[in-house]
Amino acid sequence: MRNPLLDISERRKSGIHSGLPSYCTANELAIEAILEQGKRFDSPILIEGTANQINQYGGYTGMKPQDFRDYVYGIADKVRFDRERIILGGDHMGPLVWSNLPESEAMSRARELVRLCVMAGFKKIHIDTSMKVADDSKSERLRDDVIAERGAVLLEECEKAYQELSRNNPNEMRPVYVIGSEVPIPGGTQNDEGLTVTSPKDFETTLMTYKRKFEEHGISERWQDVIAVVVQPGVEFGDKDIHPYNRNDAASLTSTLRKYPGFVFEGHSTDYQPPEKLREMVEDGIAILKVGPALTFALREGLFALSMIERELVPENERANFIETLESVMLADPSNWQKHYHGSELEKHIARKYSYSDRCRYYFSLPEIKSSITKLFANIDSIEIPDGMLSQYMPRQHKRVRDGKLLMRASALVKDCVMALCEDYNYAVSTKIYD
Questions:
Q1: What is the enclosing helix (H) or strand (E) of 177?
Q2: Domain total for the chain?
Q3: Residue 218, by phi and psi: left (phi above 0), alpha (psi -120 to 50) or beta?
Q4: Residues 186 and 305 reside in one and the same domain
């Protein structure tokens, strides 16, 4: 069976506008929204988990790769979305989580991680060995041949896992691979330093070094399974700022891609880009658009809006107080935000709620937060929201309710906030523009 991700570059060779969003989230409501929105289209839906989200030790979600697969498929069944249209991906698969360990141990754990991902049915693996491990020199840049050597080792492990799968199912779809890494690390920049677009030389060096290492490892036939290279095209977001795509700044990089028609670029941290910028990126060859924090940022906006309506209409002693509950759990455990948010107490208070880095997403799986959301939804569904109040706090959703396109239910209102973001990515990648 052919991996549908291979079709992106094939269509682009024929001059057809083609790309795919990569939704990187483990939030149940966000995934529901993504899949419900995906029913409008025929294209596959790519959902990815990062190495720190899911790994053999559970990651911060508590899920191993097979758990994540079952979790996503369970949501798909709930919303009646065809499992066959879902592509599961592993993002930043490598020694990222274990970079404090010596190479032998860090790579041993990375090999186990990618093996588990392939065995769980993940069909897109981003191999990222760009980070230093404990016994790498602290004063020297990690050499390209070291990065590619470690990457080839991981791809070999993926291939062994695939061969094991295919012995039981000769029609098992092959995974495809993405190589390279963007700067900075996943989740958004932590400072306001200027961005440097990946140079054509660095892009080509990545390709050529990896190709040589594949040959040295005797896996050169698997080069055809490498579909994309992660580059920094000049897009990023931080706590307070968004760096929009400038196609002129990226022109030398994107023009170089034309020399390699079998490849596309994968753009990370495309969150919060205007839809026209996203479409420009796809036009320029940045055909896989990864988005993560913006999904839960949109979800949080919807939850906050419902919380404001709750304050207006629900007696104080019956409220879910989602906003206050979120603040409380974040203060009780600052480990997921304190390295990212700085300044005065007021500035940190505002960042915990409204930062583009969206560190509050790490708390959404906690029992207190899940319970608060459940109560908030029950409260909203038990009252009648005045038309003008819905317009005040959720103007887009008000119009869709008014026009009969959206149910006046709490979960539907919140998920529609995520769907609006998905529409930006649909616009960016679709061959035709949908209404």
A1: strand 176-180
A2: 2
A3: left
A4: no
Structure tokens at 365: 């799986």
At 194 the pLDDT is 64
Quick: pLDDT tens for 46-89: 999 999 999 999 999 999 999 999 999 999 999 999 999 999 99
Q: Write out the two tokens for 195.
A: 């961005």
Q: What is the DSSP letter of 362?
A: G
Domain boundary among 236, 262, 294: 294
Q: Name the 3-class secondary structure at 363.
A: helix
The residue out of 294, 318, 340 marking a domain boundary is 294
Q: Which two tokens stand for residue 72?
A: 């996503």
Integer Cα distance of 47 and 40 in angstroms: 17
Q: What is the pTM of this model?
A: 0.95
Q: Which two tokens stand for residue 211?
A: 């190709």
Specify burial of residue 273 (Cβ count, 10 A radius: 0-12, 13-18, 19+). Answer: buried
Neighbours of 171 (CB within 10 A): 6
Across residues 405-424, what is the average pLDDT? Answer: 98
> Do 310 and 235 share a structural domain?
no
pLDDT(192) > 90: no
- Domain interval for residue 389: 297-426
Separation CA 314–CA 273 (nearest Å):
36
pLDDT of residue 291: 98
Q: What percent of the chain has pLDDT over 70?
A: 96
- Nearest Cα neighbor of 321 from 372, 367, 365, 384 is 372
How many CA atoms within 13 Å lie on the side-chain side of 169? 10
Residue 433: inside a domain: no
Q: Nearest-CA neighbor of 314 among 206, 413, 389? A: 389
Number of Cβ within a 10 Å radius of residue 339: 10
Amino acid at 332: A
Looking at residue 150, its pLDDT comes to: 98
Segment 146-165 mean pLDDT: 98
